[in-house]
């Protein structure tokens, strides 16, 4: 079996919810609010990657800290932008 990277979708919603420590309904809510975009099979089944699980944990940490869903979306957007800029800087330095 080939090595998978963190972006390879392998977990169904039940397993992802268990790994993240949240109910399945929360995963559906987070998706509906744009906080998470799991892959889908041809039949429409959600598939979550290790990267998705890490993002879920970040969402739940922020929620536990009292940040509302709109605030979480903004924090995640800013973190994604920041990571993109860091990646670009690293690429420019190579």
TrEMBL record:
Q: Name one GO molecular function term.
A: DNA-binding transcription factor activity
Q: Which Gene3D superfamilies does this UniProt record tie to the protein?
A: 1.10.1660.10
Taxonomically, what lineage is the organism? Bacteria, Bacillati, Actinomycetota, Actinomycetes, Micrococcales
One short Pfam name that applies is: MerR_1
- Annotated organism of origin: Plantibacter flavus
The name under which this protein is listed is MerR-like DNA binding protein
Keyword set includes DNA-binding: yes
Listed PANTHER family: HTH-TYPE TRANSCRIPTIONAL REGULATOR YFMP (PTHR30204:SF58), REDOX-CYCLING DRUG-SENSING TRANSCRIPTIONAL ACTIVATOR SOXR (PTHR30204)
UniProt keywords, alphabetically = DNA-binding
Top-rank taxon, per record = Bacteria
């Amino acid at each position: 079996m080939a090595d998978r990277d963190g972006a390879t979708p392998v977990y169904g919603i039940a397993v992802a919810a268990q790994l993240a420590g949240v109910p399945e309904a929360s995963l559906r809510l987070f998706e509906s609010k744009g906080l998470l975009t799991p892959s889908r099979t041809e039949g429409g089944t959600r598939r979550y990657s290790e990267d998705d699980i890490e993002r879920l944990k970040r969402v739940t940490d922020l929620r536990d800290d009292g940040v509302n869903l709109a605030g979480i979306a903004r924090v995640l957007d800013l973190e994604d932008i920041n990571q993109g800029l860091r990646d670009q800087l690293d690429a420019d330095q190579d």
